[in-house]
Amino acid sequence: MEQKKPIIKKRLSIAINFILFAILYFSVSFNKEFIRPIYGSAPIIGILTGSFSNFMAAYIISLFPFSPILAKQIDLGKSRLIIYVVATLVFILLTIEEIKPFADASTVYDIYDIIASGLGSIFAILTFEIFVRGTIKKKFSN
Predict the structure, then answer these.
(1) Of 132, 114, 125, nearest to 87 (Cα)?
(2) Domain limits of the chain?
(3) Cα–Cα distance for residue pair 134/128, rounded to 1 Å
């Protein structure tokens, strides 16, 4: 029975990351196919729809270590370090991709995409911090 718990946690972690990847893929695809063609020519909304994929990529990819952290119940200091480092690396990689494309994801340099990537990484960190505070409150209230 004890051996089943790590397997279940590993499968749950993989499932959560698969769901995060699906959310990333479908939200970016939906934006590209439906939202951008309709609202892409509007001044501010066009910028938002154009940078949405960078925001979502930074946000979702920065959350990928979240499920293994929960599954392995890593202490707060280490888990915070992991999330902050991953979010920073994701932002750096997306910024490099924007400035000097290496994966053909970006074709035009756009400062708004870099800002969106930064905001996505920051929102991932905020999501983690909000979740941690909720978990700590729940732990101490019991």
Answers:
(1) 125
(2) 4-141
(3) 10
Alpha carbon distances (Å) from 67 to 11, 24, 39, 42, 89: 10, 16, 35, 38, 18
pTM above 0.90, yes or no: no
* DSSP track, 28-97: HHHIIIIIHHHHTTSHHHHHHHHHHHHHHHHHHHHHTTHHHHHHHT--HHHHHHHHHHHHHHHHHHHHHH
Task: Report which residue type is found at 79.
Answer: S
Tokens of 44: 């501010």
Provide the residue count of the chain. 142
Alpha-carbon distance of 94 to 110, in angstroms, equals 12
Q: Which pLDDT score, from 0 to 100, does residue 1 have?
A: 47
Distances, alpha carbon 30 to alpha carbons 25, 36, 38, in Å = 8, 9, 12
Condensed to tens digits (0 to 9), the pLDDT of residues 48-57 reads 999 999 999 9
In angstroms and rounded to an integer, the radius of gyration of the C-alpha atoms of the chain is: 17
Phi, psi for 130 (deg, rounded to 5): -65, -45
